[in-house]
Amino acid sequence: MEQIELYTDGSSRGNPGPGGYGVVLKYKGFMKELSAGFSSTTNNRMELLAVIVGIEAIKNRELPIHVFSDSKYVIDSITQGWIWNWVKTGFKGKKNKDLWLRYIKSSEGLNIKFTWVKGHNGHPENERCDTLAVAAATGTNLGTDSGFERDANAPSTLL
User: What is the pTM of this model?
Assistant: First the structure.
């Protein structure tokens, strides 16, 4: 069966700290790589953003998509259905609401399967994504993760 393979990884040099994501898309022998870095973010945000950016880059919305990630945070949140409980509670006490809502919008109507792969274990595409993510995180052209900045600068609700 034809499918698009989406490999992802995120990196953060400190948590929070400079971070980046790496994406490898594969379909019928073609390959596309995507990456970007941010001046201040978290590893979980970059892991999730990699999946989102990869999905958003796919033009053919009819083919099944097989996502491979080494992030238990991302994989379990989706496959275990935690994300839908967070939606019901308005993401109360949960981080990365902006990215989870973006994921929901980007994945709407798609046939997506998720597979966890062990990171730093010699998986060629995962290793390539890690290389892209680290290079983006340590690069000089770092963007602003506005969702992270907004949350980091929000007043604390704890008394």
Answer: 0.95
